[in-house]
Amino acid sequence: MATTKTDPKLALAANGGKKNKLYEGLTREQLIQAYRLMYTSRRIDDREILLKRQQKIYFQMSGAGHEGIGVAAGLALKAGYDWFYPYYRDRALCLALGVKPYDMFLQGVGAADDPSSGGRQMPSHWSYPSLHIVTQSSPTGSQILQAIGCAEGGRYFARHPKAAEIPALPPFAQNAKDGPPGAADYRQFKKVSFQNDEVTYVSLGDGTSSEGEFWEAMNAAALGKLPVIFCVEDNGYAISVPVEVQTAGGSISRLVSGFPNFHFEEVDGTDPVASYAAFDRATRYCREGHGPAFVHAHVIRPYSHSLSDDERLYRPDAERERDAQRDPVTRTQMFLLREGILDEKGINQLEKEVEAELQAAVDLALEALPPAPESITKFVYSPDLDPASSAFETQAAVPEVPADGKKPAGKTMADLITATLRDEMKRDDRIVIFGEDVADCSREEYLKRKLVKGKGGVFKLTFGLQNEFGNDRVFNAPLAEAAIVGRATGMATRGLKPVVEIQFFDYIWPAMMQIRDELSVIRWRSNNGFSCPIVIRVAIGGYLTGGAIYHSQCGESVFTHIPGLRVVFPSNSQDAAGLLRTAIRCDDPVLFLEHKRLYRESFGRAAYPGPDYMIPFGKAKIVHPGTDLTVITYGAVVPRALQAAQKLEREQGVKVELIDLRCLNPFDWDTIAASVAKTNRALVAYEDTLSWGYGAEIAARIADLLFDKLDAPVRRVAAKDVFVAYQPILEDAILPQPNDLFLAMKELAEY
Ligand SMILES: Cc1ncc(C[n+]2csc(CCOP(=O)(O)OP(=O)(O)O)c2C)c(N)n1
Ligand SMILES: [Mg+2]
Fold first, then answer.
1. Which residues surround ligand 2, an ion (CB under 5 A)?
2. Does ligand 1 have an atom closer than 6 angstroms to the CB of 86?
3. Torsions phi, psi of 716, nearest 5?
4. pLDDT digits over 179-195, tens only?
C-alpha cells in the first residue's frame, strides 16, 4: 500500500483502550490511511466532474462506490511486486498502490507528462509500469485473458530463471549495417522481473462477466491453477442493464462455483475491513500456489454510469437512496468515529488536507503542456529495433554438398518453418509455443513410454518440439482463439516470446478484439510503457480443392489496416525461414501468414539456410525480372503469376517484372516504384476478394504517386467478391487462376 503520510496527531482521538486493537489484521493507522485513500478517490471523482463541466477535461469515469474493495485490494497486495489489471472503477486501488492524484489529473487534461499514456487515453485507463499496473483499455473484459498470461509468464520465469537473463550479443550482430550493434534481439529491450509467490489481480464489473473472454479466462486459470485473483465488482448494473438480466439467476458467485481449484469469496465491497479479510485470504491462497481466487464484491454505483448517462432514467429514487445508505465513504467515516479511531476534528482535518492536496494537484495539472502533434506516430512500433533495418540482414548458409556430390534435396516451407522454430527455441529460452493441437501429445506419459509418435499441429509444423523442449515450452491450449492471443499478450508483457498458432485463418475472428484493440495498440497507448512482441502464426488461404468457405479464407488487409501490427506473407521456403526468424527476434507483434497450399508445394523449395538466416521486413523480391509490365503480388499467387509471366514471354515476348512483396506491413514501396518507373504498367494480383483488398491500397498509391510514369491504368486481379466454395469447379472460378493472370497481363501489355 502507498505510504502517503497520515499525520500521527490525527490518531490522537483514539480511545486509549482500543489502541492496539486490530481489525481483521489492520491497525488503526492503516484504517485511517484507508479512509484517506477512499476519501481522496471520491474527491478526485468530484473534482473531475467539475472539470468536465468546465470543459477543462474531456471525459470522466468515476470509481464512486467501489472505494472499499479497492483500498482493501491495495492493502492485501504489493505494488511493484504483484501485477495488476484494474478496470476503470479502480481509482481507489490505484491510489492505494501509489498512483498520485496529480498523475490522475494529468491524464484527465491529456498532458504530455501523463505517465500512463502521454495524453493518448481517457482518464481511468490505468498504466503505471513501475507499480506493475498494466495498461488498460476500454473494451470490457479484454484485460482478463492478459492477466492469465501475465501470471503464466511470472510462473514460467520462476521455473526457468535463466530465461530472464539478457544474452550476450549474437554473432551475426557484428555484421549489422545499421542499428545499434547486436540490436537484433528483442530481449535487449525486455528487462524481466518476477517473484516466486507473486499474484496477478484482475477486476471487472458484473456486466463484464457476461463476456466470453471472462469464461475463457476462468477456465484457463482453473486449468493452470494460476495465482490470479478475479475481483468482480458487482454494482448491480451495466450502464442501465440490471444484474438479473445480465447473469442467469442473478449471482455470478453461484454461476462460477463449479470451477475447480478456486478459492471463493463473496463480500460486502463497501466495507473495507470485511473486503480486506476476503482479499487477505484470497491472496494467501494464491501465494501458497493452491490456485486462483474469485472475490465477488457487492458494491454500489452512487453516480450514473458516466457523465454521459443519467441513471434517473432507469432507477427510481427509492432504489438510489437504498444504495446511498451503503456508501463506502460515509460508512467508513462512521466506522472510524464509532471505533474512536478518529474524532470529528480528526476527520475534518484529514479531509481538509486531502482537499488542499487535490487543489494543488489540479492547479498544477491545468498548467501542464499538451503533447506535441508531431508525436502522434511515436511508439506505434518499437523505437529500439526496426525489423526493416539491416541489423536483420544475414546471409543464408551455403548448403553442405552430400558425399555423393548430388544437389541436396530442397526443403519444403513446412520443413523450414519447423527448423526455424526449433533453432530459435534452442537459442532463446523465452520462446513458448502454444495453440490448438500444436503439442506432440498432451498426455506426456504416452510420449515418454513411446506409445505414440505425437501430432505436432494439424499441419505438423510443430512436430517434435514438445518432445525436444518439454511441456512448459510447447503445449496445447483450450479451443479458444481469444484466449490464445490474449494469454500470449499477457506473457509477452512480462518478457516471454510466445509464438502461438491460430489453426486456420478462418477462425482468427474470436481473437480479433485481442489483436485489434489490445496487442497492436498496447505500446502506443501506454506511451511505450508496455509492449508485447508476440508472433501469431496462421495457416491461411485456398486453392485446396475442397477447402470451402471455412478453410480457404484470406483477409490479410483486415490486419494490414491495423497500425502497430507487422504482417508477413511468404511464398517460398527460404523466405519463410528468414522472415519467421526476423519475426521472432524483433520487438513488434507479428502476424505471420503461412499459405497452406504452399506448405509442401514443390515450388519454392530450398536448402536449409542455417540457424541465423534473417530477412529484414519490407524488402520485396524480384522473382522474374522484366521491362514491359510490373506485376505485384505475394503468397500463393506468386507461383501462379510466374507461370502466367513465363507463358506471356514465351508466346508474345512480353517481359514481365514479377515482384513478390513477402512482407505486407511494412511493404517495399521503393522496389514497386523503381519497377513501375521502368515498365510504366502495373498489375496488382492477390488471392483475397477484389473489393477493398490489400491490392487496392497498392493500386491507389501507384495511381497517386506514379501517375506521371503510367502508360496504362493500374489493374487488379483477385478473387471474385464471394466466398470460396467447396466444389472444385466453383473454387477455380472464384480464386484467381494462372489464366486470369495471363489474360490480365496480356491486356495490360497491349493497352
Ligand atoms: C466490449 C465492450 N462492449 C461495450 C462497451 C460499452 N460499455 C462500457 S462500460 C459498459 C458496462 C459495464 O458494466 P459492468 O461490467 O457492470 O461495469 P460497471 O461500469 O457497472 O462498473 C458498457 C456496456 C465496452 N466498453 N466494451
Ligand atoms: Mg456493473
1. 205-207, 235, 237-238
2. no
3. -130, 145
4. 554 458 999 889 999 99
